[in-house]
Specification:
alpha+beta; two-stranded antiparallel sheet; 29% helix; Endoribo_LPSP/chorism_mut-like; RidA family protein
């Protein structure tokens, strides 16, 4: 089997879900030239919000990293839909912006974000190495523990 994004997803045991519909007045992704920008993705799993709460209060680091990985999976699902089903059009992940619902004393947002970053490098290879921001916020939509948006270069 050729080494493709799809084959790496399969090897990782990941099946991309159907891309989530917007929950308000926005679009899930926008393309402009060779750039694809996704809207923020929540840690959805099987159509339900999988990780809710606040890091440093009622959510531990491991659960936060799982939430970040789920967000990354949903980013790829949105990208696949936006690219007409063709993930091979992804040339490079440029940036992830990671929002972490955080207690005031929680300072490991960067470690939470690694759940998404490590997954993207695993699936996209060198094209998955990216710039990143990891930001602590008091609350996220629907009580999600993590929300992530992505900026990708596409063919």
């Amino acid at each position: 089997m050729a080494d493709t994004i799809e084959s790496r997803l399969e090897a990782a045991g990941v099946t991309l879900p159907q891309a989530a519909a917007p929950a308000a007045n926005y679009v899930p992704a926008v393309t402009f030239g060779s750039i694809l920008q996704t809207s923020g993705q929540l840690p959805m799993d099987n159509g339900a919000l999988a990780v809710t709460g606040t890091l440093g209060a009622n959510v531990d680091l491991e659960a936060g990293q799982r939430a970040a990985k789920l967000c990354a999976i949903n980013i790829l699902a949105q990208a696949k839909t936006a690219l007409g089903g063709d993930l091979s059009r992804i040339k490079r992940l440029l940036k992830l912006t990671v929002f972490v619902a955080s207690a005031p004393t929680f300072t490991d947002q960067h470690k939470v974000a690694n759940g998404a970053s490590d997954f993207m490098v695993e699936i996209l290879g060198d094209a998955g190495r990216h710039a990143r921001s990891a930001v602590g916020v008091p609350a996220l939509p629907l009580g999600a523990a993590v929300e992530i948006e992505a900026l990708l270069e596409i063919a």
